[in-house]
Amino acid sequence: MSQVMPGDTIASIEEYEAGSNTFDDGDMIRSTVVGHTSIDASNHVANILRQKKTGVPEPGDIVIGTVAAVMSMMFAVSIQYVNGKRTLSNVECICSTRHIRRKNMALVNDIVMLRIESHLNGTIHAVMDEHSLGVLQTKCVKCGGSVVPVRDVIKCVECSWIDERVLSSKFGTSDFLTFDN
Ligand SMILES: [Zn+2]
């Protein structure tokens, strides 16, 4: 099935009637939405099936993204993967850190794995309430060096700086994903 855009011609009004998500311009039936053509041949109706918005995660989806901003009670993440699939839609979600008693959960540019909890007032809310959720990749804030987990903190292998993060149980094992810088 080929994709149609708003305004695209679907069929002639001599052959079909305008169905869902279409209009008739007096000559041709055209789409009003982005979607795919669905011709109901027995009733001679041309419909457009609206394309599901891609890249917008739904509650329960696991997302991976880059921390874009850190605020006092939450951080914002620019989502790059939804359930393991790359998305280029630049969707952001926020993760509340109110209930986590740590100084640093995640810092800007960390790669984190989160679970989408809800959509509320146009904002996508995510949580990290499982062991697999949390920081996947991070660097030393002092020197940019690599860090290793040491008990419940992380330690820089270059300058020995010790810092806090909420680490995913998959920390450091995310080689299966490639991130574009
Ligand atoms: Zn360092």
DSSP summary: helix tally: 0
- What is the residue-averaged pLDDT? 88
Major sheet details:
5 strands, mixed, barrel
The fourth-level CATH homologous superfamily of the largest domain is: Nucleic acid-binding proteins
- State the name of the first-level CATH class of the largest domain: Mainly Beta
**Strands, count:** 17
Query: What is the number of domains?
Result: 2
How much of the residues is beta strand, in percent? 35-45%
Q: What is the overall silhouette?
A: elongated
Radius of gyration: 23 Å
**Category from helices, strands and their pairing:** mainly beta
* Percent of residues in helices: under 10%
Which fold does the CATH topology of the largest domain refer to?
A: OB fold (Dihydrolipoamide Acetyltransferase, E2P)
Structure description:
Helix content is 0%, strand content 45%. The protein is mainly beta. It has 2 domains: 3-50, RNA polymerase II/Efflux pump adaptor protein, barrel-sandwich hybrid domain (OB fold (Dihydrolipoamide Acetyltransferase, E2P), Beta Barrel); 62-163, Nucleic acid-binding proteins (OB fold (Dihydrolipoamide Acetyltransferase, E2P), Beta Barrel), CATH 2.40.50. A hairpin with a 2-residue loop joins strand 12 (111-120) and strand 13. The model has no long low-confidence stretch (mean pLDDT 88). The structure holds zinc ion (ZN). Zinc ion is lined by residues 140, 142-143, 145, 156, 158-159, 161.
